[in-house]
Amino acid sequence: GPLLAIESSCDETACAILAPDGRVLAERLVSQEAHAAFGGVVPEIAARAHLALLPDLAGKTLESSGLARGDLAAVAASTGPGLIGGLIVGASFGKGLAIALGKPFIAINHIEAHALSARLPGVSDGQIGFPFLLLLVSGGHCQCLAVEGVGQYRRLGGTIDDAAGEAFDKVAKMLGLGWPGGPALERLAREGDPAAFALPRPLKGRAGCDFSFSGLKTAIARQLEPFGFAALPRQVAADLAASFQQAVADVIEDRATHALAMMERPTALVAAGGVAANTVLRERLTALAAAHGLPFVAPPLRLCTDNAVMVGWAALEICREATRLGLPVPDDRATRPRPRWPLGEMAERFAVG
Ligand code: ATP
Ligand code: MG
Ligand code: FE
């Protein structure tokens, strides 16, 4: 039967109901707006908002699916990694409902959900097999993962300071744009010259596929110094935005090239996370994948950023893998929410004996 999925690990409160084949029967999402005034996500505000929003959102989602509670075969929720307050709200709600219905609760690793989202029906039309390279580039994450199977994830490298989205947001703030800054910066960059400023390409050409963005941020700050408190001319801001975006794209392309070389026979290049919405980056990655004879897949933006559909899909993939291995459908009601939850631990679910 269908399952209800819940996402509450950051600042999106979301519910989705998926049929066993992955079809989305209903979906609701609220991007919490209270954080914009603070220029970033405030954990305590997020937790309270999840608590206020979730029960009603779950009810409305069920209503618009045309199903009754009793039709649900399972409940899944992001149980880590993320902001602990929100995780506790979502996981507790999910567990409570599952227990009341006498159905299993499936604890989903939020990063695993991002990783498997490229395999959603309608995203890659079942074209994505294993292994594939996942480039996860969001506000909180920046890493390269070899996705070798359901539950089989190998971290190839990641950021040693800021996440890519975080860098976009911080630079956008320096240029006087709002939060989140990525989309605004991309828009402004269209009016600018990407060669106007010579910015560093941190870690480009280095062995492995780690990332670093803090030096880039500092370089932008240095370029802004001559303007002091004076208003930044629009063309200068646009040129800086374009130059920054170009530098980030150069770095990510280089790191992805290294990551592909670290894998044995990758079958696709996949990007997820809010930064994967960036058009310049998408063009680069499409060309990179093509040069390797691989498809490039990036879920549509609403599935790239945090959502409950990917959480439900991960639960379905896990159930299917368990069945394939002759294991029972998991019931994770004893799994506690965790702010950190390394992907390497996900294989334990399928460990035999
Ligand atoms: P998490 O990291 O926990 O997955 P998050 O909320 O921090 O969650 P997302 O919601 O996936 O991350 O993405 C938001 C980030 O993506 C922000 O940092 C935003 O600036 C960035 N972003 C969104 N659109 C673009 C774009 N067009 N270009 C560059 N960055 C973008
Ligand atoms: Mg978000
Ligand atoms: Fe996320």
From TrEMBL:
Location in or out of the cell: Cytoplasm
Entry keywords, A to Z: Acyltransferase, Cytoplasm, Iron, Metal-binding, Transferase, tRNA processing
Protein residues bound to substrate: L136, V137, S138, G139, G140, D169, G182, E186, N278
EC number: 2.3.1.234
GO molecular function, one term: tRNA N(6)-L-threonylcarbamoyladenine synthase activity
Record-annotated Gcp-like domain positions: 24-313
NCBIfam families documented for this protein: gcp_kae1 (TIGR00329), T6A_TsaD_YgjD (TIGR03723)
Name of the protein this chain belongs to: tRNA N6-adenosine threonylcarbamoyltransferase
Native species: Acetobacter musti
Name of the gene: tsaD
